[in-house]
Amino acid sequence: MLSPGQRIDDLPLLTPRGDVTGLGTFRGEACVLIFLRHLG
Amino acid sequence: MSRRRDELGRARVACITFAPAVLLGAFERELALDRIELYGDPDRRSYAAFDLKRGSITRVWLDPRVWWRYARLLARGRRLRSVGQDTLQLGGDAVVDADGRLAWIFRSRGPDDRPSVDELLVALAGARRH
Q1: Which residues contact B7 (CB under 8 A, 6 or more apart)?
Q2: ipTM exceeding 0.95, yes/no
């Protein structure tokens, strides 16, 4: 289980425009990730 | 969160959903998110990596706390829709520091179980100190 202090893998994410990016792009500034439940 | 976005300062704020990619654009337009980014992860790899679980039917659909939350949403004018998505998948919130390390995480135990914005602000301040 991922715990505080551990590095986050660069997992792929899709943008609303269909591009592929990754969690690795979030480095450089602290960020907040909000994992949603279903949309609707 | 949108109402208090300014308090988060320069921090990037990203919402991640497992909804089908084709819904992302419409959802982004509907919510008109301000400085909150939206990303899709239909395979839920990030959900698995952050150990965000699926809830039980009892906790997700039969718990009075959930119905109370839905009642409040309806009272505020929100419409509930059939979504065709996995309603048992739970969410969570995480703060990642500038080096890409997990600084703080909140794993929801039910649909109504989310941290307050104040808790996020404290976690974010902690991540910035390191």
Answers
A1: B117, B121
A2: no
| pLDDT 10s digits, A1-40 | 889 999 998 999 999 999 999 988 888 889 999 999 876 5
Measured between CB atoms, which of B23, B91, B99 is closest to A37? B91
Which residues in chain A are contacts of B17 at CB distance < 8 A? 36, 38-39
Whole-model pTM over 0.90: no
Q: How far apart are CA B72 and CA B70, in angstroms?
A: 5
Chain A residue numbers touching B38 (CB-CB < 8 A): 15-16
Asked if residue B102 lies in contact with residue B123, where contact means CB atoms within 8 angstroms, the answer is no
In angstroms, rounded to a whole number, what is the distance separating the alpha carbons of residues B105 and B92? Answer: 7
Shortest alpha-carbon distance between residue B78 and chain A (Å): 10
Residues A4, B103: Cα–Cα separation, whole Å? 5
CA B15, distance to chain mean position in Å, is 6
The total number of residues shown for chain A amounts to: 40
